[in-house]
């Protein structure tokens, strides 16, 4: 078991404390391609934050590869995020004043890889994603699909065991969405990377092999979807 | 390091105008520090000018008038020193500290004649061999007056080099004058030496043995003042005690109250120098403080602009943290940017400040005032040295770090969740 959550609770303190996660129990195997689906306010983003060690949780256990992720220092958390987890965001989150290749290099910079080596690696990954010619361009010179592919290259470059994608198609048109989801599926099949996609679109969820529904802070139904026919809107397209 | 500066450059480049405006305040602060210190140095140099002509461990003592009645003599009586006072100083307990004792007497208004050359309005200055050391006289040819000249009351004379030049009609082969005879008024002297003339002064004084002048003019034992060098009085307190003791002894010898402060006067170059140094240090410190306060405005500006930068880049720092940036690497970015801005503009200010000092030296530094026939320069060498440049560099780096510290901590505290927030 690569990822295990036992009875994870999270409450946002405030004038009106908000109990967002009310005891999440979840296991994800190595090499799985899963999606977490839920409406807004269901707690799926909070769950993703906890999975990505971007946020802490109050109660329960979160275990990656047998190591308990709890009470980490900022440095340790940064180390895990850098080496174990790759992030893909809805709004791409590329740094606007850096070129595509510089953006892809960045995680390696934080690993202390030499300038030349990380440039080589970044070019290699951009090439794999068909963006070699765009290496010197800034994000605002690229289309949404290209930007998301740069972001994927950035997520892949550190060879993470887990890729967390937060609404990866949220800002893309349907054609590019299909491309991106196919790309993720291909990475999962060929590289054996665990991929967790958070989405509220059933078409996107349908691309994954298992769909975990979250509702009001607890895990609801878990659908096995190896035949990719879960979508109510058909199996051939991602509905927009 | 290279990567860090690339990042800093990228950030600064995006905000050229506000970086320059902020940098201006820093440049101005450092400019003020350099100009103030330069002007301060020039001022101290002007105070000290001429001070180098004398050895610092010397005192001059002279007669005043009594301020209180003593031994039946009433106040207001003039005290005149005489040769016995010089002997007094050569005895215990003063001989312990006093090295050389001299006096001098000037008779002015004579004409100097050599061959067919005449120079008007020179003065004969009768003195002792110790005068040479005390006044740091540099001989360019021949020798100064010696003990034998004093004993034998020789009619020998030492000329300043400017006078000698005049006699030689602009020539500088001073050796030629040695052994020659010159006439001062009606008296004939043999030239034994040429000395360097005092700076910023008309070269009018001709040195002759005291005993000679005393005989020629039929002087009595009275003398105007006594100058002596001393040793073993390191502090101001020791000097004060010594002066008090010396004045008491001389007062007593002239039937004045030992504690009568105005019966004799003492001018102590050593304590004067001490006070001058103290004053110079205080001035220096005060100028630094004023300069640093001026700089403070610039530093607050940098700190402020860095806070704005951090605020603007919150999302970016969130992304960086999400992909593995440690808090320290974010802090480094901000501190490096702050130090770079401060140091860069600080250096511009420093260079401009030094340029201003240079201009000050070339203009104000060259102008002088005539005071009692002596030309006094308003500023002497109003520039700052390498030490100030190094100190200012350190100040800039420290200031830059301090300015960046608070914004950097704020940046390091950015939570990685910020990355997930839409801009």
Q: Over the alpha carbons, how many angstroms does the gyration radius of chain A reach? A: 18 Å
What's the domain count of chain A? 1
- The percent range for strand residues of chain A is 25-35%
Major beta-sheet overview of chain B:
7 strands, mixed
Give the % helix of chain A. 25-40%
- Low-confidence parts of chain B, pLDDT < 50 over ≥5 residues? none
**Helical proportion of chain B, percent range:** 40-55%
- Named CATH topology of chain A: Rossmann fold
CATH H level, superfamily name of chain A: P-loop containing nucleotide triphosphate hydrolases
Rg from alpha-carbon coordinates of chain B: 33 Å
Oligomeric state of the chains in view: heterodimer
Sheet with most strands of chain A: 6 strands, mixed
Helix-strand blueprint:
The complex is a heterodimer of chains A (about 240) and B (about 425).
Chain A: E1 3-12, E2 18-28, E3 33-37, H1 44-51, E4 59-64, E5 67-68, H2 74-83, E6 85-88, H3 100-109, H4 115-128, H5 144-156, E7 162-166, H6 174-191, E8 194-199, H7 202-206, E9 210-215, E10 218-224
Parallel strand pairs in A: 3-8, 3-9, 6-7, 7-8
Antiparallel strand pairs in A: 1-2, 1-4, 4-5, 9-10
Helix pairs in contact in A: 3-4, 3-5, 5-6
Chain B: H1 2-14, H2 16-48, E1 58-63, E2 81-82, H3 83-89, E3 98-103, E4 105-114, E5 117-127, H4 130-134, E6 139-142, H5 147-152, E7 156-160, H6 161-167, E8 181-184, E9 187-195, E10 205-209, H7 210-217, E11 222-223, E12 225-230, H8 236-253, E13 264-268, H9 269-312, H10 314-322, H11 327-362, E14 368-371, E15 374-377, H12 386-412
Parallel strand pairs in B: 5-10, 7-9
Antiparallel strand pairs in B: 1-12, 1-13, 2-11, 3-12, 4-5, 4-8, 6-9, 8-9, 14-15
Helix pairs in contact in B: 1-11, 2-9, 2-11, 2-12, 9-11, 9-12, 11-12
